[in-house]
Amino acid sequence: MRSTILKGPIGNIHIQEASPPVTAGESEPLPVVFVHGMVLSASLWEAQLARIGSTRRAIALDVRGHGDSAAPEDGNYAPVSCAADVFAVLDEFGLDRVAIVGHSFGADIALAAAAIAPHRVAQLVLADPPGDFTQLSVEMYEAWLVPFQRVLETEDWRPAVEAGFNDALTGSLAGTRDRILACLAATPGDRLLGMYRGMFAFEAVDALDRYLAAPGTRAHAIIAPSNAFPFSLHILRPTLTTTTIPNTGHWLMLDAPEVFAKELDICLEGL
Asked: Cβ distance 218 to 118 under 8 Å?
């Protein structure tokens, strides 16, 4: 596995990469790009990189403000802005068309990239995507999202965020819980708040519709059992091919890496 620093739109982008030996004259399978979610880094995908990288090129990037990638000075973590970093990686390696696997907030980034340039994304895999908060009912918006957003704008926001992460860890392994909460504690507050703002404003359903309206595109969601909200993508768009991995929390690739890997293999068949 190789680690590289690239130049991106706002500064350095750190990536981890794995690939099999290239045999002259053989066609190469479609490369896969992995995008992690809040508070983590490309290391989230190490098991998947090692496995998939044995048969095709696999790249994972540190999302801006995470790991060794630069943080935006203006605090802009809108998925559309973060997608520019994905394209910078594709352009650096001359990758015209790829599969993108995004988890959580990274699923929104993957969706944004796919909607912007569907001709460059043959397969979109959404790992427990957060859904579309712009589609909330008025009642849920006023009862839940508005109070949460108000708390985020105060100095006492961390307990509310920690409670949300603990809810998302329901069903997770103890090792997953320890790792995620340690990463949360180490993440600067301004970066977390910027990501929440970007996620809450992102029109995920519209992005998915625009991507799938283009020829030669396909999408698959792999979700945890708890992902059953009125604003969940597979509920708002029942035609979205969706697989649930039982006995997992939100970080399902850590709770059930082998099962997750098998689902990825299914998504990548024929590519």
From this structure: no
| Structural domain for 255, as ranges | 2-268
Q: Which residue has the higher pLDDT, 145 or 53?
A: 53
* Beta carbons of 264 and 52 less than 8 angstroms apart: yes
- Supply the CATH number for residue 165's domain: 3.40.50.1820
Per-residue pLDDT reduced to its tens digit, 188-206: 888 998 999 999 999 999 9
Structure tokens at 181: 């909460």
From first CA to last CA, the distance across the chain in angstroms is: 22
Q: What is the pLDDT of residue 145?
A: 82
Residue 3 pairs with which residues in a beta bridge?
16
Q: How many domains does the chain have?
A: 1
Strand locations in the chain, DSSP E? Answer: 2-7, 12-18, 32-35, 58-61, 98-103, 121-127, 219-223, 241-244
Outline where 117-251 has alpha helix (H): 138-140, 146-152, 158-168, 174-186, 189-201, 204-212, 233-236
Instruction: For residues 50 and 52, give the distance between their C-alpha atoms in angstroms, rounded to a whole number.
Output: 6
Alpha-carbon 231 to chain mean position: 17
- Which tokens is 75 given? 């605090």
Question: What is the rounded distance in angstroms from the CA atom of residue 45 to the CA atom of residue 35?
Answer: 9
